[in-house]
Design brief:
The protein folds into three domains: about 140 residues, Adenine-n6-DNA-methyltransferase TaqI, Chain A, domain 2, CATH 3.90.220; about 100 residues, Bipartite methylase S protein (Helix Hairpins, Orthogonal Bundle), CATH 1.10.287; about 150 residues, DNA methylase specificity domains (Adenine-n6-DNA-methyltransferase TaqI, Chain A, domain 2, Alpha-Beta Complex), CATH 3.90.220.20. The chain is elongated, with a radius of gyration of 28 Å. The chain contains eleven helices and 26 strands. The chain has about 425 residues and is α+β, with helices and mostly antiparallel strands. The two termini are about 35 Å apart. The strands form ten sheets. Strands 4-12-9-10 form a four-stranded antiparallel sheet. The chain has a four-stranded antiparallel sheet with strand order 17-25-22-23. Strands 8-5-11 form a three-stranded mixed sheet, with no helix packed on it.
Length: about 425
């Protein structure tokens, strides 16, 4: 059995050593951003803390400033450099893998460059910092206590870090990277499926199921055979009960939905609130399967369908309940239309009342126009097509969540040596079964 030693950062096997960060890495902070540095003819891209996330670098918003020749030589990133945030989410780190040629970094990032080959694996160090800062709070209190918490170069230098044998470092990093790669694959699949859904919604709501001719209307192009109706022509609209100190009192406390429970296309029941309802209010405000709930404020127009998720539930006054007036209206079709109209087309943006807190009144909502296919079958088919896409997104999100839980578990077990890698291989496909 391996002997266990104890240190201020935890218990570790005797064949691991504990070392200061500056004994393993050269640490360098980048160039400060200033108005003066925005001028000059040698503008170069550089990374800020907002570009560095745990295990990845975001290039969607890349800034530039002037670098002298000396600064270029000193601050140019090299493959294997570890970038660690000084402030904000202190310690957040990622590896530079030569994603682009000629990139630099600002002074709120520490660049850690291994002093010796085959002594420390930057990828292992990344995962150690991920565990120490994000999971275990091992370095809590190490950052300078200022208005904006930060980790100075001197404080970072003296932090202790475990150092297994180099081969073991690489095996640990390999196991964790394999799970991270699988997580990223699921994230890309979710993004692609959402793009597909967006394109499909645009096609279905402008061309219908059969690519028919279009006509121009007050709300833009719609299929020629579809007719426009106002929401209050098709639905009975009713707002819920106002929450107050008085409604918290009473022996008939009932669960009710708030805007915080209503998301696009789904109801979240994880945090339900309760208040008193009279028997008359119960009769008027009980939700029925097929009711649509539309947010009056906040994310204006956000809509979800009530599927009878629980036997008895009500709703507050910041939610509009839409209940169809006849069988010619399919609520699931309306849910997707609202998603398309509000999120993609911004159709009803101007319908919110201009108050301190923007909101969509009952009267304004009722006036909103929606296109209606001539048959229930077409409405149902449109909804079913989009529901199939949503199911795929939900399944993929579930797989991603399982992999994220696996990563957290392995990160903890490997960094606390509850598990030794011993050439461990992770089959992520088995995890997702």
């Amino acid at each position: 059995m391996t002997d266990i030693l104890h240190s201020e950062i935890g218990s570790y096997p005797a064949d691991w050593s504990i070392q200061r960060v500056d004994s393993l890495f050269d640490i360098q902070q980048g160039k400060s951003v200033s108005k003066a540095h925005r001028e000059g003819d040698n503008q170069k891209p550089f990374l800020r803390t907002k570009n560095v996330f745990w295990g990845k670098i975001d290039f969607s918003e890349l800034d530039q400033m002037h670098f002298t020749a000396q600064e270029e030589a000193r601050l140019k990133l090299q493959a294997g450099d570890l970038l660690l945030c000084e402030g904000g989410d202190v310690g957040r780190a990622s590896i530079w893998n030569d994603q682009m040629e000629g990139c630099y970094y600002q002074n709120h990032l520490h660049r850690l460059r291994a002093k010796a080959v085959n002594e420390v694996d930057p990828q292992f160090a990344l995962y150690w910092f991920w565990y120490a800062f994000k999971v275990a709070n091992i370095y809590i209190g190490r950052s300078n206590v200022t208005t904006i918490p930060n980790l100075s170069q001197s404080k970072l230098s003296e932090l202790q870090i475990p150092k297994p044998e180099f081969d073991e470092q690489r095996r640990i990093a390999h196991v964790l990277t394999s799970v991270q790669t699988a997580i990223e694959q699921q994230a890309r699949l979710i993004a692609l499926t959402r793009e597909l859904k967006s394109a499909l919604m645009r096609k279905l709501f402008t061309e219908g199921l059969h690519g028919e001719k279009q006509k121009e209307t007050e709300i833009g192009l719609v299929p020629e055979s579809w007719e426009l109706h106002s929401i209050d022509d098709m639905f009975e609209i009713k707002q819920g009960k106002q929450l107050s100190a008085k409604t918290r009192i009473g022996d008939n406390q009932k669960p009710f939905l708030r805007t915080a429970n209503v998301f696009w296309g789904r109801i979240d029941l994880s945090k339900l609130d309760f208040m008193h309802f009279t028997s008359e209010e119960e009769r008027k405000l009980t939700l029925q399967e097929g009711d649509l709930l539309v947010c009056e404020g906040g994310d204006i127009g956000r809509t979800a369908l009530w599927h009878g998720e629980m036997a008895e539930c009500y709703y507050q006054n910041h939610l509009h309940r839409l209940r169809r007036k006849n069988d010619k209206t399919v609520p699931s079709f309306m849910q997707y239309w609202m998603m398309y109209a509000v999120v993609q087309r911004k159709l009803y943006v101007g319908h919110g009342n201009k108050t301190t807190i923007p909101n969509l009144s009952k009267a304004k909502l009722g006036q909103c126009l929606i296109p209606n296919p001539p048959t229930n079958e077409e409405q149902i088919s449109v909804a079913h097509t989009l529901e199939a896409i949503d199911r795929k997104i939900t399944i993929t999100q579930s797989r991603k969540s399982k992999l994220e839980e696996l990563f957290r578990t392995l990160l903890h077990q490997l960094m606390t040596v509850q598990v030794r890698v011993n050439y461990m291989e992770i089959d992520t496909n088995e995890v997702l079964k």
